[in-house]
Amino acid sequence: MVTQLESKVTQSSQCLSETLKMLRTQVLLLFCLARATNAIYKQWIPDTNYENKTNWDKGDVPCGNDRVHFSSQSKVSVFVETMHAVQEILLPINGEFILNPGAGFYVVSGQDPSCGGGVTTNFKDSDSLQWFNPALWQTAATQNDLHQGNFLFSVHEESVPCQNDEVIFKALSSFRSDTSCSQSTIPVKSVSVLGKTFDDRSEFSRYLSSHSGQLQFHGSSAVTVGNPSCEDSTGCVCENSVHHQLICSTVTCASLSCKNPLLPVGHCCEVCGAIITIDYAENFNLQHYRDRIRHLFLILPQYKSIQLGMSKVLKPRPLMRLIPFGTSREIQVVIVDGDMGKLSNTLAQDIIKDAKSHGSELGITKAEIQGSTESNSAMVVGVVFAVLLMIAFIVILVVLNRKGVVQMPAMPSMPSLSLFRRSPDVEDINGDIDCGFDNPMFDGCDMPSALPGLYDSNAISLTRTGVHFINPVYDEQIGSSCSPGTPTCTQKKTQHNTVRLSTNHDIIM
Ligand SMILES: *[C@@H]1O[C@H](CO)[C@@H](O)[C@H](O)[C@H]1NC(C)=O
Q: TM spans, by residue (predicted)?
């Protein structure tokens, strides 16, 4: 007998086979588009599901002989997937059950032989679980990867949803997350709750003020959706550094065994491993490069224990000739192996080798390694691929020209070759190359007075004629992740009954 239960039944329209087909192609299309814009998915791990035994203080889901207690003060939205036998339930004053179709409670008369002697089991409190705790999120590049458990490693700041991210709360589950922080809003691209994706700001704000919304999201700040996705194929900076202290307050750093631990940008703890810092050109594609590293190296058995995170970060700039202070956007690759960092260093060298031979088609202009295995302070290996390529190209051209094999076309302002006879000053040329790729961070390009006359734009155009092709392997890869069978009709599943409990310790008997 259930007393004073206000029940609300929300039913979404049924997916008919015809509309399902249409929806499928639309979902497919959306999926491909999302993929093209470097989308990142962040999924909240904990749930407040009745069936999850970690939510019960006895470590087990209560059965027919057990008494089930929810603390009267607990504000919780509990998802119930199936039918459960109980002896009694003590309900909270303010809470709700979200019942999956077919879910519910019943009381067994007498003893349930498949259940133990009968205990009192309490539902654990989830008030303390914070949105800004990086341990409570999983990151993946696609929704399919989320389902298959292909998670991405990221630095602590980026483990928490960034402003361009798609936030997922698992479809058949409920949750409770404390969104308190120093800002009034937490902007993200979209939020999925119970299989429904919100990307309209006002619609989600209505959801937040609903009964379910208030139980699921609590705290001083409001999550807002509708932020654009990352449109820059070279990647977007996760602007969570404003929350650095809050994020790191939830993290306990492990003790390290290596000589020179490294501190990656955006991470709370020093790590034993390697960091590669990459300067990129406009044809760099973060998503493709991440896939490339995964398929070339991370799937190899010797790199099984490796964790690799790759993202665009704002790196503080050391004193330089033209721009004394500020930050630059760089791709940071963090490699951790859970040991002394030796394996990370081997992988980092492999990645550098690959970048050296494919730098120009990958859009990599420079890469540096920092390793934690060296005994002296972090070794820096600068590799200037584009420069080498350009020098080689010019040298060949000059040699062929001298031998009369190739007639040089009339180039009005070909730079004096004495520049290259003079010992090639890598640093100087490097600055020039970066300008050639239109790197916005090298503001020097906009100041003609800062460039010596020798750095003629014709010299740059030579590098621009360099190798440029699209690797078919990675195109195929995009194709395959858009293959049929990956997206599902999630609308189908959102048929739940919400039972709202505005009762004072009601007892179901
Ligand atoms: C149960 O909850 C734990 C911790 O909150 C989570 O890691 C786990 O994935 C959940 N189990 C299932 C089956 O969802």
A: 378-400
**Pair (142, 83) in one structural domain:** yes
Six-digit token pair at 113? 């032989």
Checking if the pLDDT of 455 tops 90, the result is no
pTM: 0.69
Ligand 1 pocket (Cβ < 6 Å) reads: 45-47, 52, 54
> How is residue 446 annotated by DSSP?
G
- Which helix H or strand E contains 22, and what residues bound it? helix 17-36
Boundaries of domain holding 407:
391-464
Q: Whose CA is nearest to atom 10 of ligand 1?
A: 52
Q: Residue 259: how many CB atoms within 10 A of its CB?
A: 13
Ligand 1 atom, smallest distance to 55 CA: 2
Residue 114 lies in a domain: yes
Report the amino acid identity of residue 75.
Answer: K
244 token code pair: 């650095």
How many angstroms separate the CA atoms of 78 and 393, rounded?
Answer: 66
**SS3 of 383-405:** ECHHHHHHHHHHHHHHHHHHHCC
Residues 363 and 283: their CA atoms lie apart, in Å, by 5
Q: 356, 383, 410: which is the final residue of a domain?
A: 383
CA of 172 to the centre of ligand 1 (A): 12
- pLDDT tens, residue by residue, 250-262: 999 988 888 889 9
| Amino acid letter, residue 31 | F
Residues 6+ apart with CB under 8 A from 147: none
Full 3-state SS string of 111-135: CCCCCCCCCEEEECCCCCCECCCHH
Q: Is 275's pLDDT higher than 50? A: yes
Residue 484 is assigned to a structural domain of this protein: no
pLDDT average, residue stretch 85-94: 91
The single residue listed with the structure tokens 């420079």 is 366
Q: Diameter of the chain by CA atoms?
A: 103
Q: Report how far apart, in Å, the C-alpha atoms of 377 and of each of 111, 333, 350 are.
A: 69, 19, 21
Coil, helix or strand for 76?
strand
Could you count the other beta carbons within 10 Å of the beta carbon of residue 270? 16
Across 80-94, 351-365, 437-451, least confident range = 437-451
